[in-house]
Amino acid sequence: MNKNKVTTLKAPREISEDPLTELLRAGAKKLIAEAVEAEIQDFLAQYAELKNEKGHRQVVRNAYLPEREILTGIGEVEVKIPKVRDKSGQGIKFNSVLVPPYLRKCKNIEDLLPWLYLKGISTGDFQEALHTLLGVNAKGLSSSAISRCKRIWEQEHEVWDRRSLEGKRYVYIWADGIYFNIRSDDARQCILVIIGVTEQGRKEFIAIEDGYRESEQSWSEVLLRLKSQGLKHGPKLAIGDGALGFWKALSKVYPETRHQRCWVHKTANVLNKLPKSVQPKAKQALHEIWMAPTKGEAYKAFDAAISTYSAKYPKAMQCLGKDKDQMLAFYDFPATHWQHIRTSNPIESTFATVRLRTAKTRGCVARKTILSMVFKLGQSAQNRWRKLRGFKLLAAVIRGVQFKDGEPIEPLTESELNRDVA
């Protein structure tokens, strides 16, 4: 009896895979290329003194071996291994420790992603990550080659940090000081981070810098440097927690920028001053404030919460009442932007992953290493960010269109929504 034969066709790779996988594969390819380049530079340095009678080097680079693919936990990654030419006749050859000649599949491909996330940390941790990728074969990778990779990432951050910001304009910015459970080589353990959204609705990192705690001086240095690099126009709104250092510095550098305190930080600060038995109801009362449809109703909810809890818990209510107007500034901006500008969540969610990676770092880590790690992981996260909801209204915000309770005081026409910012 004949049976129908079913043939399954394999879909093309570029159609079957999601953009995140392609992004990770591109990152893996770049990192492997950087590591192999560091290896061959280290190898050539060993034979730098081997020269002929004319003073010419006898061991030199000689193009690349044919490109091949290695199966990893994120699919196949193309690699190109450089070759060397030995003119001395001693049979000197270059074999990559990271990508051995006959390697076609990673030993522990299921652990590749942690290695990618750990890029840029200290030498010891980077070696451990490579062991995860290649098993015992990674033992031969010299510390000098690893250090060369680290220097590449540090240089990338330094170049990015000095980039020109001429012509850039950010409508909203989110600012926060990020702390990690890492022993640093000095007391400047706080990473000052600013994320901004352009008038086209794209979120991007503006600054990743270290500072002493979250002092006014440290934030002033960051903001003044951004201004000197070409960021002449201050944002319309800045979002952050109640750290006084940032707000004092912002008022001096960009006095026209309005302030919005983060409701996530405010809620946590208030609840910390209340007994656990009271926290659920108090949290709901706070929720009714920042979820109110109008500023008038938000003020009523504010007064109701303070009236309910101030007698028994005056410290908690003093915390709530502090910066009252700055807590409700978002009502003067488009309602479609509220979910983005009520909290500093863009920074918190991004660096949750970074904290997970740094939790494994036990040794003392250099300041530049921490910065380069945060920079590399931050760039990876930035590539996956989506545009701000209602981004067409950003141009109206820049032009100075007035909003009340999230709606323009005068209705905007379609042409006004699509008008470019001058």
Which features would summarize this protein structure in a list?
422 residues; alpha/beta; two-stranded antiparallel ribbon; 17 helices; 15% strand; disordered N terminus
Query: Which band does the percent of strand residues land in?
Result: 15-25%
Please state the overall shape, judged from the principal axes of the Cα atoms: elongated
In helices, the fraction of residues equals 40-55%
Q: How large is the count of helical segments? A: 17
Oligomeric state: single chain
Mean pLDDT: 80
User: What about the largest sheet?
Assistant: 5 strands, mixed
Query: First CA to last CA: what distance?
Result: 76 Å
Rg calc: 27 Å
Domain count, please report it: 2
Runs in which pLDDT lies below 50 for 5 or more consecutive residues are: 1-16, 107-123, 133-141
Order of helices and strands: HHEEEEHHHEEEEHEHEHHHHHHHEHHEEH
Report strand order across the widest sheet: 8-7-5-9-10
Number of strands: 13
SS-based class: alpha/beta
Outline of the structure:
The chain has two domains: 14-159, no CATH class; 168-382, no CATH class. Helix content is 44%, strand content 15%.
